[in-house]
């Protein structure tokens, strides 16, 4: 791993945390999920998942909305879904995945938007179940209350962010770290 890649990973982690604090006034509208997904796509599922866990480890510990250990753990490990998802999407695209993203931007904007919705639904499903458990709520009620309107806003904003920002962010990061087919490790 070269110093450009390490620096990029550190910057993505800091950017993920910093944007969450900056956007605190917008409940469930965050760039963190997109940043973690892009990190996974560019650096693999392990690094993407790790950035997701580390980002929520810091943000959740110093969360201005309060701290709850079970909720913190669920959000921390659920955030990894985005990074792991990004890494596996790149693997599914094959060794020329970056080239494909560059060559067919419209398709990938729609694809990443839909993928952002799916990953966000998975994240919200897990974290709302834990929220219901912690607060002694019926799990079904917790899922419904958590999704309407909060999960709905989270899902739609992520669909927009992933669709509009995914391709440019991936292409920019891959250019910074050394080429469109750059990877941190080869398997």
Can you characterise this structure?
The chain is mainly alpha-helical and 187 residues long. It has a single domain (3-176), classed as Arp2/3 complex 21 kDa subunit ARPC3. It has helices at 3-22, 32-43, 45-61, 69-93, 97-103, 105-134, 139-176. α2 runs antiparallel to α3, α2 packs across α7 and α4 packs antiparallel against α6.
Strand content: under 5%
Q: Can you tell me the CATH topology? A: Arp2/3 complex 21 kDa subunit ARPC3
Structural class: mainly alpha
Largest sheet: none
Give the domain tally.
1
Total number of helices: 7
Name of the CATH architecture: Orthogonal Bundle
Note the gap between the termini.
14 Å
Mean pLDDT: 88
Number of beta-strand segments: 0
Summed up, what is this model?
Helices cover 80% and strands 0% of the residues. The protein has 187 residues and is mostly helical.
Features of the shown structure:
globular, Arp2/3 complex 21 kDa subunit ARPC3, 187 residues, disordered C terminus
Question: Which helices and strands, and how do they pair?
Answer:
Blueprint: H1 3-22, H2 32-43, H3 45-61, H4 69-93, H5 97-103, H6 105-134, H7 139-176
Helix pairs in contact: 1-2, 1-3, 2-3, 2-4, 2-7, 3-4, 4-6, 6-7
